[in-house]
Amino acid sequence: MLGFPGKTEKDETMKLVEQHCRRTYKRACPSCGSWNLKPQTPIDVDIDITDVRKALGQYACAIKAGATPLKGPCYIMCFDCFYKGPSVDCSGRTSEDVGCDKAVFDEMKRLWREHDYKPNAGRQP
Ligand SMILES: [Zn+2]
User: Fold this and answer.
1) DSSP SS3 for 104
2) Three state DSSP letters for 49-85
3) CB within 8 Å of 6: residues ≥ 6 apart
4) Which of 52, 81, 90, 108 is most exposed, with minimal Cβ within 10 Å?
5) Can you tell me the distance from the alpha carbon of 20 to that of 3, in angstroms, rounded to the nearest whole number?
6) Taking 60 as the threshold, does the pLDDT of residue 19 lie above it?
7) How many A from CA of 110 to the centre of ligand 1?
8) Residue in 101, 104, 59 with CA at minimum distance from that of residue 86
9) 27-63 burial by CB neighbour count: b if 16+ within 10 A, else e?
10) Residue 61 Cα, ligand 1 centroid: separation in angstroms?
11) pLDDT at 10 over 80
């Protein structure tokens, strides 16, 4: 790890997040080396992101309906450079179904640990 001068509480929080991600994902982002990783499960909702309040409403309705169709593949993404790991195809399944399915998350983590790094659509920092 690089040492930055002037440690703050935020650094401590980041360290805890990083520890959690190290345990969970076992591999830092191959693109930028960040541990700011989060699993993505895109849902099939026509969200208008130009209107945040409307979007939140649409999202809430979709979630409330109980069975949220997934838009497609689930994957682990780096939130620092938006690099996307290999995806698990979950189309046809619902977000609730996949959310309860540890196997899907395990598969995402396995693919993330074992995949060969190729620069993809991720945005460079
Ligand atoms: Zn990254």
Assistant:
1) helix
2) CCCHHHHHHHHHHHHHCCCCEECCEEEEEECCCCCEC
3) none
4) 52
5) 20
6) yes
7) 18
8) 104
9) bbbebeebbbbebebebebebeeeeeeeeeeeeeebe
10) 32
11) yes
43 CA to middle of ligand 1, Å?
Answer: 23
Place of tokens 């046809």: 92
Q: Radius of gyration (Cα) for the chain, nearest Å?
A: 17
The larger pLDDT score, comparing residue 8 to residue 12, is at 12
* pLDDT value of residue 13: 86
Residues 75-125: tens digit of each pLDDT: 999 999 999 999 888 777 777 777 667 888 898 999 999 999 988 755 544
Dump pLDDT digits (tens) for 46-80: 555 566 666 667 667 666 666 677 767 889 999 99
Rounded to the nearest angstrom, the distance between the alpha carbon of 80 and the centre of ligand 1 is 5
Give the containing element (helix H, strand E) for 88: strand 88-89
Residues constituting the chain: 125
In this prediction, residue 24 carries a pLDDT of 93
CA 68 to ligand 1 center in whole angstroms = 28
